[in-house]
Each structure stands twice: as structure tokens, then as C-alpha cells.
Amino acid sequence: MYEFKSVDESYLDALMNVELACHSFPWSRNTMKSCIGGRYFNLAVFDGETLIAFYVGEQAGPDYTLMDICVHPTWQRRGIAKQLLTHFIDTCTARDAENVFLEVRASNKNAIHLYEQAGFIEMGIRKNYYPTANGNEDAILMGMSFFGEFGI
């Protein structure tokens, strides 16, 4: 039903359409463009010709970070985020990752639950990390180690 594939800069407009639909304070077009290629990797989900979801990961030595993961609101609650997260973790494992990290808005309970189900644990709080309409919101730093404890 859905097609999963890595995308390049030619999909920048489609990536931004999903990004803008998902976030009140989305990445800029320049940020998105800078996270395609190099040490970054991605997977996008298509329904026919329409890009409906994606993730962006980053490799820094043996550590990996889930930089962004979005499912267009029209396609949420169908297990797509779980499939993307599983692919991200599998990619990190295949690349011999030692640790995997992510940050999530403290208010994003659905995402936190998804990450916990996948094996991520809370590692700390980044105070006032994310912008909001009324100031800032904390980020929860979460991680997963492939060695049983963090090698940091």
C-alpha cells in the first residue's frame, strides 16, 4: 500500500509540506535542505505519488540522532510513525551504532509513548528548548544504547 524510500533534494518541497503540516514551529527550508545527504540519512513514505511521512537521522561517529520524524496529520494513527522509527533503529543497528538519541517536546505524550515502546529511555531535560506560542517548552532527551548502558 505505502512505498518507503530514501529521498534527495528533489523532494524538498514535499518534505516541507509534511513538516509544515506537522509542526507549529517547523524547520526552515534551509535547515531541511542542509539535512539531506552527507552525514544525514532519511526515509520517506509515499501514498501513490504523495509524500506523507518521513524521518531524518544523523550519524556522528558511533552515535546516531533522530533529528525529525513527521507523519502528515491526514495519515496519522495508522502505524506509519512506528514503521519509520523501526526502520531508523534497524538502520542504526546495521551501521553498528553504539547509542541513539532524540529530543521530544515534553507535551508530546503520543511520541514519548512510541519512543518508550521502542526501547528509548529518558536521559534528561533540556529546559526551554522548543519555542511555543507563549514562550518555550522543555525537551525530553531520550536515548537507547546497543550495549545495555550508554557509552558516553
What would a concise description of this structure say?
With 152 residues, the protein is α+β, with helices and mostly antiparallel strands. The chain has 4 helices and 7 strands, in the order βααβββαβαββ.
Distance between the termini: 40 Å
Instruction: Report the count of strand segments.
Output: 7
Strand content range: 35-45%
Shape: globular
- So how many helices? 4
Gyration radius, in Å: 15 Å
What's the pLDDT, averaged over the residues?
Answer: 94
Strand arrangement across the biggest beta sheet? 1-2-3-4-5-7-6
Order of secondary-structure elements: EHHEEEHEHEE
Which percent range fits the helix content?
A: 25-40%
SS class: alpha+beta
Can you summarize the main beta sheet?
7 strands, mixed
Sequence stretches where pLDDT stays below 50 over 5 or more residues? none
Write up what this structure looks like.
- This protein is an alpha+beta fold and 152 residues long.
- Helix content is 28%, strand content 40%.
- It is built from four helices and seven strands; from the N terminus they run βααβββαβαββ.
- The protein has a seven-stranded mixed sheet with strand order 1-2-3-4-5-7-6.
- β3 (50-60) and β4 (63-71) form a beta hairpin.
- The longest helix is centred in the middle third of the chain and has 15 residues, at 80-94.
- The chain is globular, with a radius of gyration of 15 Å.
